[in-house]
Amino acid sequence: MVTIDSTLDDIMKLDFDSREMLLEILQKRQVEARREEIAKGARKSLQEYGSGKLQPLSAKEVIEKLNS
Q1: How confident is the model at residue 29 (pLDDT cuts 50, 70, 90)?
Q2: In the chain, where are the structural domains located?
Q3: What is the pLDDT of residues 2-21, one digit of tens each?
Q4: What secondary structure does DSSP assign to 2-57, as a single string?
Q5: Distance CA 10, CA 6 (A)
Q6: Cα→Cα distances 57→48, 60, 68, Å
Q7: What is the pLDDT of residues 36-57, one digit of tens each?
């Protein structure tokens, strides 16, 4: 079974430059995954708005909802 601990042990066996490269790759993949989550949420919101499930609000109404 692969665990985080065993994976980290394997990673630490790599040379310094390889670990740096791995770190950079993981960071970039995390950024891309987050962007995809945001885009997915935006697409869903646009669909809901287009189907009438969401109604437009003024900036004041949005702020009031956020503060409540």
Answers
A1: very high
A2: 4-67
A3: 999 999 999 999 999 999 99
A4: --HHHHHHHHHTS-HHHHHHHHHHHHHHHHHHHHHHHHHHHHHHHHHHHTTSS---
A5: 6
A6: 14, 8, 15
A7: 999 999 999 999 989 999 888 8
